[in-house]
Amino acid sequence: MFDGIKVPSGPSIVFKPNFVLFPVIYPHRFPSPEKIKVSFRSTFVINGGATWLTIESLDLDGALVINCEDNIHAPTIISNLEVKNRGWVKVATDDPDADEVVKMRGYKIQKVETCVITIKRDGNIVKKTKVDPDFGTKELFDYDLSAPRQCEASENFSNDCNCIIL
């Protein structure tokens, strides 16, 4: 409830125009929409030069931000990505000193936990988990997704590796 009005919850999805400018582009960016799952409480943001990004399969329950550096011309495919975290929370506020946008909305966004994937110009892909220090540890976990993770490199490949980016 914000400013006395009950508002139904739903996912917050923001795609910058260089990822999807027209609806006709969606089938190229998401070739298997039946394999894309975004929970009602999720936040999904794609920033930057994502013109060559394709997301084949995604299971999102929380917050995911994909940042692409500009001038990436090699196709990047995200497949079998599973993100489960505490996500972003809308917190009602009536603070008279709040930013004008926050006053109009009636809430501010608390970024509790976010999975951030950065696709770099040189082809490297880095995955980080950011946690708000008010809600837990201040640690930042880095993963270089360009190289196989330990469990992927072993012959005993297990389901513990729940994120594969091709």
Q: Can you tell me the CATH class?
A: Mainly Beta
Major sheet description: 6 strands, mixed
* Helix-residue proportion: under 10%
How do the strands of the widest beta sheet line up side by side? Answer: 1-3-6-10-11-12
**CA-CA gap between termini:** 41 Å
Q: Per CATH, what is the topology?
A: UDP N-Acetylglucosamine Acyltransferase, domain 1
Domains (count): 1
Q: Can you count the helices?
A: 3
Q: What is the helix/strand order? A: EHEEEEEEEHEEEEHE
- Taking pLDDT < 50 over at least 5 consecutive residues as the criterion, the unreliable ranges are 137-166
Q: Would you write up a description of this structure?
A:
The protein has 166 residues and is mainly β. The protein has one domain: 3 Solenoid (UDP N-Acetylglucosamine Acyltransferase, domain 1), CATH 2.160.10.30. Helix content is 8%, strand content 40%. It is built from three helices and 13 strands. The protein has a six-stranded mixed β-sheet with strand order 1-3-6-10-11-12, with no helix packed on it. Strands 2, 4, 5, 7 and 13 form a five-stranded mixed β-sheet that branches. The N and C termini lie far apart (41 Å). 14% of the residues are buried. The model is unreliable at 137-166 (pLDDT under 50).
Write the layout of secondary structure elements.
Blueprint: E1 12-15, H1 26-29, E2 36-38, E3 43-48, E4 53-55, E5 58-61, E6 63-68, E7 76-84, E8 88-92, H2 100-105, E9 107-111, E10 113-119, E11 125-131, E12 141-144, H3 150-153, E13 163-165
Parallel strand pairs: 1-3, 2-5, 3-6, 4-7, 5-7, 6-10
Antiparallel strand pairs: 7-13, 8-9, 10-11, 11-12
